[in-house]
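Support request from a user on the community tier.

User writes: "When I paste my structure tokens into the form, the page sometimes reloads and wipes my input. The last time it worked, I copied everything first. Here is what I submitted, just in case something in the input itself triggers the reload:"
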């Protein structure tokens, strides 16, 4: 008998990513809602930055743990763990970006999707 896996909503996945970021004191967390944007490759971008290579890696690990433990999902693809300047976790409908501040400013993903609604989360001290 085949057991079907419960479909996890992109909203729940994005919320779990934010929780994982907050757990490791990520900075300037934002949720970019791409659902109503034509040709968008996913439903959400979840973006933040860390204060060092170590912090960026810890944030990405926390996001992976939060999603794996609570939603039983693993990223389809990951990039950037080698240098930890920009780590990307691809969950198909949700793409998580954990940057160092300088890389985040350089690429400006929020500005690229300026027509999408963006939710900002306060930094937890």
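"...and here is what came back when it finally went through:"
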């Amino acid at each position: 008998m085949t057991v079907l896996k419960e479909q996890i909503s992109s909203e729940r996945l994005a919320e779990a990513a934010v929780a994982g970021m907050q757990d490791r004191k990520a900075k300037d967390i934002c949720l970019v809602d791409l659902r109503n944007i034509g040709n968008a490759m996913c439903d959400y971008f979840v973006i933040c930055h860390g204060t060092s290579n170590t912090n960026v890696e810890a944030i990405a690990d926390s996001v992976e743990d939060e999603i794996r433990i609570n939603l039983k999902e693993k990223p389809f693809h990951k990039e950037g763990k080698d240098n930890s300047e920009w780590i990307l976790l691809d969950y198909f409908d949700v793409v998580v970006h954990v940057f160092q501040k300088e890389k985040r400013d350089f690429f400006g993903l929020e500005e690229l999707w300026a027509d999408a609604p963006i939710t900002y989360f306060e930094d937890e001290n």
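Agent notes: The reload is a front-end session timeout and is unrelated to the input. DSSP finds four helices and six strands in the chain. The CA atoms of residues 57 and 82 lie 9 Å apart. Escalated to web team.
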